[in-house]
User: Which sequence fits this backbone?
């Protein structure tokens, strides 16, 4: 499968712990997006990379959240000092620059 | 600010009936509009985009700039169309914003 892959697919963590999600985009896609989705809602934009540059960050992305794409390939999304409100599906997507974006299957986070 | 509104969370029709999923947007410039679909146990995927002006799986959507709408239509719904449908807008920053989604159920 050469689509967008995300790891881990599921993560249960205790409140206050740090978690990190990884996203591997489709090869040679220069754009990479992170979204958060909760039950009954559409994907909410978190941040967006063009190659290794982080071009936009949503207000939803508090200072506990940080995303990187160090070499313009894979990306990581870290959440520090997790809170129960962080429980959600974290979706990664990539695009070759055509505005058509391709989603991964998502990483489920449950904070207990 | 760009915003996408899907007023119906749930929509149920019988097989063979016409279906219309509503989408309204607000954006100050010239947006690109998309419909994405998520079938059960599958990832979110692109259904169609307004600039292509094509019909996919019998679905069409016309961008109405006067009414700021991009409704998705199909004349004869099929059971396999049952899914979550999300309207999305891409602005000049290339960031894609999604509506809350409409769950379509097509009954036999």
Assistant:
């Amino acid at each position: 499968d050469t689509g967008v892959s995300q790891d881990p697919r599921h993560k249960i963590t205790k409140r206050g712990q740090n978690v990190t999600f990884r996203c591997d985009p489709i090869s040679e896609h220069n754009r990479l997006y992170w979204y958060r989705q909760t039950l009954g809602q559409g994907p909410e934009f978190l941040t967006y990379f063009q190659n290794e540059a982080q071009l936009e960050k949503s207000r939803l992305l508090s200072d506990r959240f940080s995303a990187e794409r160090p070499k313009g390939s894979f990306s990581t999304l870290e959440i520090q000092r997790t809170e129960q409100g962080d429980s959600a599906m974290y979706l990664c997507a990539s695009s070759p620059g055509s505005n058509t974006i391709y989603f991964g299957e998502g990483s489920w986070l449950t904070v207990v | 600010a760009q915003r996408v509104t899907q007023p119906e969370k749930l929509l149920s029709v019988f097989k063979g009936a016409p279906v219309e999923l509503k989408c309204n947007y607000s954006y100050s410039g010239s947006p690109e509009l998309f419909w994405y679909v998520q079938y059960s146990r599958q990832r979110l995927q692109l259904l169609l985009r307004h600039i292509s002006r094509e019909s996919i799986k019998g679905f069409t959507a016309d961008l109405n700039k006067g009414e700021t709408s991009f409704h998705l239509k199909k004349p004869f719904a099929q059971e396999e169309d049952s899914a979550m449908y999300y309207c999305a807008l891409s602005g000049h920053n290339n960031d894609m914003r999604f509506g809350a989604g409409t769950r379509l159920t097509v009954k036999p």
Notes: Chain B is about 0% helix and 45% strand.
